[in-house]
């Protein structure tokens, strides 16, 4: 199973998270408030963002990534994949069903 | 070394985290406030939760998972395992000792 | 690509995060408020901390880890490495450039 790590502006995060679940690209998305310091075009910025931790499957990750890029207001959004192991079995089954056709 | 990723209701999170440390199933648990959107029995829900990031070892992960499932109020709790690499050596040693017999 | 997971006292977190970006050891650092329960010298503690999720590269991780240990007020800071896969390509390119010489 896969956790996708995405950052988004706070006022767009709920819409993106909900869309991923509505479209069965994620079973669940955890949204976490954060502050982000980064280098962009030579300047250092520090902005409020929301971290989205989207619970999905191997099969769905590529579609989720494509959809995040479509939905996202940034030119270069952060979308990364982390592998999970030894997921609690009933939770894994629920996830498979929640993103199933 | 291993990070276990667990979500819990906000008013149960501290108890679960503290129990894992008291019982030497984790050396440390970081608790993070989050909002979670998910699909459950055909409906989309959006609830406040707390993310628990429990720092443990390969040897302890299965016991930690079993104990989380016992302590947890949900029927189908999220318990996942993420592998770490190149942990700062003194921190790794401390963790080994903190979950040691 | 690599995410470094670091915890820090809340009043030091911004300085550490900004230094890592200024010194091109990370392209971006997400800071998240958390509460941490842990065992230290036989006692259980519960403190406010800040989680730093630093986005860097394979090549930069060891330097980032060394620098975090120098900058950090703790004797035994938490510095861990998580591997990412299938990062959104333009984001990966940006990161490479942001930590480039």
TrEMBL record, chains A, B, C:
Coiled-coil ranges from the UniProt annotation: none
Gene3D superfamilies: 3.30.70.120
InterPro entries: Ion_tolerance_CutA, N-reg_PII-like_a/b, N-reg_PII/ATP_PRibTrfase_C
Signal sequence region: none
GO BP terms in the entry: response to metal ion
GO molecular function, a single term: copper ion binding
Domain of life the protein comes from: Archaea
Keyword Manganese (UniProt): no
Key words of the record: Cytoplasm
One Pfam family hit: CutA1
Family: Belongs to the CutA family.
Protein name: Divalent cation tolerance protein
């Amino acid at each position: 199973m896969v956790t996708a790590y995405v950052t988004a502006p706070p006022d767009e995060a709920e819409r993106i998270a909900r869309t991923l679940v509505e479209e069965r690209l994620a079973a669940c998305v955890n949204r976490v408030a954060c502050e982000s310091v980064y280098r962009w075009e030579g300047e250092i910025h520090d902005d409020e963002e929301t971290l989205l931790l989207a619970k999905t499957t191997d099969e769905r990750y590529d579609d989720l990534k494509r959809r995040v890029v479509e939905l996202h207001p940034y030119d270069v959004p952060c979308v990364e994949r982390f592998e999970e192991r030894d997921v609690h079995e009933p939770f894994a089954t629920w996830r498979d069903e929640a993103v199933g056709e």
